[in-house]
Write a structure and sequence with these properties.
Layout (H helix, E strand, L loop, with lengths): L8 E2 L6 E2 L21 H14 L1 H32 L2 H12 L3 H58 L7 H42 L22 H9 L4 H9 L12 E3 L2 E7 L6 H5 L2 H7 L7 E4 L6 E7 L12 H4 L12 E6 L4 E4 L6 E5 L5 H13 L5 E6 L15 E4 L3 H22 L10 E6 L1 H5 L19 H12 L5 E8 L8 H5 L3 E4 L5 H8 L1 H5 L15 E5 L12 E5 L4 H14 L18 H9 L4 E3 H11 L1 H4 L4 H8 L7 E3 L2 E5 H10 L6 H4 L1
Parallel strand pairs: 9-13, 9-14, 10-11, 10-12, 12-13
Antiparallel strand pairs: 1-2, 3-4, 4-6, 5-6, 7-8, 7-16, 14-15, 15-16, 17-19, 18-19
Helix pairs in contact: 2-5, 3-4, 6-9, 11-18, 12-14, 19-20, 19-23
Length: about 700
């Protein structure tokens, strides 16, 4: 059986088996795909696709579409203008726009105009009915008069030339002129008929191009930068139209004047412009305020360069639009720096604090107004508050008591100027600050008990970084906490007492705090301030804590100030500063006074006060007090001091020991010592020299310090 087996051969290329002697054929399918020819329709499709999608083709398509749509848009606008001129549609649009805006007086005026227009149009149409017969009569009269005039002229010429042929010479001349005109018309008519439609098309294209009737996708890419462009009525209306508020956009489209009636005059206002916008019915001021960023971008400005406030007029927003980049420029030095002769008057004067957005000087009255300034860290809060304190220091009748709970030397220049200066962030410093404020409460209560009509010198307490005091966990011997926001908190209750009654007797408290919350700035404390100031904040809720709901609802937006970039820019809600009518707040760019310059101003204030005041750096313990030594301490370098002034300085030096002292207590201590109070120019005073002799001759065991 093996002899009948036929061997098979395997082709290594195709993998097939063949009999001996057979020649296998290589199938066409074995050819690689790479060498297959591409079909013609595919090449054509690819070429068309490349041609259609190329940038050059798209640019050409946009060019054709743009200019074609210019012609269509121009035709539409020209037809609309012609229709408006022939019909009362324009008046009807104005009536609808006035009704939509709720201005019914204006609607009635436009209705009267429509009535007059229709009456005049009726008269014109009636005149047209009589126009043919009037034209025939006029033509006959005109022809007869013309011929008669020419004959008369010919007769005159014939007489002058003594030739009868001159009689018809004028008529011949007119006929020849008419023939020449006809000849010129026949020559020009052909080209005019050819060129006329193209000229009309060009005119329509020009109208469409001027009004940009082509869609946005067909317009060329804008290469120029519009940032900082002058603000015009059309720019403002376009920015409002594109805010994304459907009723506002619809109302502007319905207005025959394209929305210009919404705008008041655009006024130059400092480093920008100001314009009032009366919104149409159905559009609330809150909707526009909520789109401040989009409005700024539509006006080619940054968000911080557009401010939206609410004047007294209903449905009106006031836009202040800065010149591009103007708010990033410094405003110059403070008058406290440039005018070395400047003094202050707490009662009648105002502190030169900065400039408003219009570029006008912003001055702040501090008379009988408790003050609160807050903001995020490192935004210029201390510098802004210190500038006010420096101005107060230039009034020598003002007593300053200062607690700086940061303690890095920002208030060091007040050493020798303030009667109390506490600097430091620890619980001990908070305790001292609390006792300082409690000493002010004691002085306030003493003043309240004085006879009616008594005039008091101003006492101003300043607590910087007050959030440290509110958050302090320290507890006193009486088990009462120093910090907190409850009635058991000593600092909180002292502040509340001063807020309640202090201004009546010129005891004023000014506080600065960071990042306000209900924990570090209780509601009752912030609402007790008459002047509320805020630098840049993080959220709207913080802005409401800082300034109150009324100011924020009226457009105040410290939370929209730029952290770091708007250092020293504050939003103020107070009757102590001039605020434009109808607004609840004003934005002020404060002057910056650095620490070294502040020290120079403080030295000027010390010179006004007849020498350096002895400054208490902590609140002493009442049990360790030495009344005679303390009285001599508060004298400073003055030879005589009023008893009332001595009592005030003692309370500042040690509120716990002397806060409730009256003249009787002072007299009791000095009686029999040889330094008793006496009258000078009708007022009770104490002599420094007499008191110094008493202390010099006092035995060592007579002092409180010796008793220890």
């Amino acid at each position: 059986m093996t002899d009948n087996v036929v061997p098979l051969f395997k082709d290594p290329t195709t993998g097939t088996y063949t009999l001996p002697g057979d020649t296998p054929e290589t199938p066409a399918a074995a050819a690689p795909d790479a060498v297959r020819p591409v079909r013609r329709w595919k090449r054509t499709a690819r070429g068309l696709r490349a041609a259609v999608t190329s940038e050059r083709t798209r640019t050409a398509a946009r060019l054709v579409a743009r200019h074609g749509l210019y012609v269509l848009g121009g035709t539409r606008l020209t037809a609309k203008r012609a229709w408006d001129g022939r019909t009362g549609s324009r008046y009807e649009r104005m009536i609808r726009a006035a009704e939509a805006a709720g201005n019914f007086e204006e609607a009635k005026e436009w209705e009267d105009r429509l009535t007059r227009f229709r009456s005049a149009r009726h008269h014109r149409r009636m005149d047209l009915l009589k126009a043919p017969q009037d034209a025939v009569k006029s033509a006959a009269y005109g022809t007869g008069l013309t011929i008669g005039g020419l004959l008369l002229l010919g007769i005159v010429l014939a007489i002058a030339n003594k030739d009868a042929s001159w009689i018809i010479a004028p008529i011949n001349a007119v006929i020849e002129a008419i023939a020449a005109i006809v000849h010129v018309a026949t020559v020009v008519w052909g080209p005019a008929v050819t060129v006329g439609p193209w000229l009309a098309l060009l005119a329509l294209w020009s109208v469409g191009r001027q009004r940009q009737t082509a869609p946005q996708w067909a317009l060329p890419a804008q290469q120029r930068d519009d940032a900082g462009a002058p603000i015009t009525p059309s720019i403002v209306v376009t920015a409002l139209r594109d805010l994304g508020i459907a009723p506002l956009r619809g109302a502007i489209k319905e207005m025959g004047d394209a929305g210009a009636a919404m705008l008041g005059p655009i006024r130059i206002a400092g480093c920008g412009v100001e314009v009032d916008v009366t919104l149409p019915s159905g559009v609330s001021t809150a909707e526009v305020q909520g789109r401040r960023r989009k409005l700024a971008e539509n006006l080619a400005r940054h968000e911080h360069e557009v401010f939206i406030t609410l004047p007294t007029a209903a449905r009106t927003v006031r836009l202040w639009i800065a010149d591009s980049g103007a708010l990033d420029e410094p405003i110059g030095p403070s008058p406290l720096v440039t005018d070395e002769t400047m003094t202050a008057n707490y009662r009648t004067g105002k502190a030169p604090w900065g400039q408003d957005l219009r570029g006008d000087a912003a001055t702040l009255s501090l008379y009988q107004r408790h003050l609160l300034i807050t903001g995020l860290s490192n935004q210029g809060k201390t510098a802004a508050l210190r500038a006010l304190a420096l101005w107060l220091a230039l009034d020598k009748t003002v007593e300053l008591r200062i607690a700086d709970l940061k303690g890095v030397g920002d208030w060091a220049m007040f050493d020798g100027l303030a009667t109390t200066l506490i600097q430091g962030p620890t619980d001990d410093h908070v305790i001292a600050a609390t006792e300082m404020v409690e000493g002010m409460v004691a002085e306030m209560e003493r003043r309240i008990q004085m006879p009616p009509g008594t005039v008091f010198t101003p006492l101003v307490g300043i607590v910087d970084e007050a959030q440290v005091a509110f958050m302090c966990p320290a507890v006193g011997d009486d088990k009462r906490p120093y910090g907190g926001s409850k009635a058991t908190s000593r600092y909180f209750m002292a502040v509340r007492k001063i807020h309640n009654q202090g201004r009546a007797v010129d005891v004023i408290l000014e506080e600065g705090t960071q990042d306000p919350t209900d924990q570090n700035l209780p509601k009752l404390v912030r609402e007790g301030a008459h002047t509320r100031i805020s630098l840049a904040l993080g959220t709207e809720s913080q802005a409401r804590m800082a300034l109150g709901d009324k100011a924020v609802d009226g457009g105040a937006a410290p939370h929209l100030l730029r952290q770091g970039l708007d250092k020293g820019t504050v939003v103020v809600a107070s009757d102590g500063i001039t605020i434009p009518a109808g607004q609840a707040s004003i934005t002020v760019r404060t002057h910056y006074i650095d620490t070294d310059t502040a020290a120079v101003i403080a030295d000027r204030a010390k010179a006004l006060r007849n020498g350096v005041i002895t400054t208490a750096h902590t609140v002493a313990d009442a049990d360790a007090s030495d009344p005679l030594a303390d009285i001599l301490t508060v004298f400073g370098t003055e030879p005589r001091v009023l008893t009332q002034e001595v009592l005030k300085r003692l309370a500042a030096l040690n509120g716990k020991a002397y806060g409730r002292w009256s003249f009787i207590d002072l007299k009791r201590v000095l009686d029999g010592t040889g330094a008793e109070p006496y009258k000078s120019d009708g007022r009770m005073v104490i002599s420094r020299d007499r008191l110094a002799r008493v202390l010099a001759n006092r035995p060592d065991d007579g002092s409180a310090s010796a008793a220890e």
